[in-house]
Amino acid sequence: EQLRSLHFLHDRFAHNVSTSMSAFLRSVTEVSIVSVEQFAYSEFLMSLPEQTAFYAVAIDPLDGLAALELNPAVAFTLVDRMLGGTGLTPSMNRPLTEIEQNVIDTVVKLLLDALSEAWKSVTDVLFRIQGRETRPQMLQVMGPNEIVILLGFDVKIAEVRGMLNLCIPAAAIESV
Description:
There is one protein chain. By secondary structure, the protein is an alpha+beta fold. 40% of the residues lie in helices and 31% in strands. The chain is built from five helices and six strands, in the order H-E-H-E-E-H-H-E-E-E-H. A six-stranded antiparallel beta sheet has the order 1-5-6-3-2-4. A hairpin with a 4-residue loop joins strand 2 and strand 3. Helix 1 (2-25) crosses helix 4. The mean pLDDT is 91.
């Protein structure tokens, strides 16, 4: 029942983010939730690409951190689109540069604002960037055996498609 409630809550988030990102990027953007699953944090880390846009996210006033991962295909498309390109450049096989990460931060803040807004129907929570890294294993977010809820979103910007993953500690969700 909790997973179904989380799916419904984040389905609304996906709809709202689709609208705001389309306006922000001036490009048709579709975001839809594809999965809500429970895993150990180490399993989530192993499923990620070696190089990606990875964020530690504070969940104020709840304890612990969440993790947000933006697939490289989506990240490079966002950077290209925000810097005046078409967004159709192929995903590159390299880590994001510091400048590219700063550009992505703007979109991640937009996502986190929409997430905070979606959670208002349940409780007042403020999601904010705590840290970031291009290699997920290098950013300590939580213990490897901690149980997490993994929310997977399909993101389509123009013709490019990729995943956005949000990983929230199960303990934080249970406290709400």
